[in-house]
Amino acid sequence: MIKKSLILMLLCFSIYAQTRVKFAAFDGGGVRGVITLEIIQAIEKYGQFSLSDQCAGFGGTSTGAIIAIGLALGIPASELSQYYQHLSSEVFAHGHPHLFHAQYDPHRFKEALLQLFHDKKISPDICLKDLPKKVVLPVLCLKDPENNRWEIKLLENFSEEGGQVKVTDAVVEVTSAPTFFPSSNGYIDAGVVVNNPSLATLAHAHQYYLMYDENINIDLLSIGTGFFEKYIEGNEDWGSVQWMTPVALYHTAGAEPLINMMVDVSNYWITKLCYKLFPNSFHRINMKLSKNFTLDQVSAIPEMIQETQQYIKDHESYIQKISQWFK
Question: Which residues pair with 248 in a beta bridge?
Answer without folding.
Answer: none
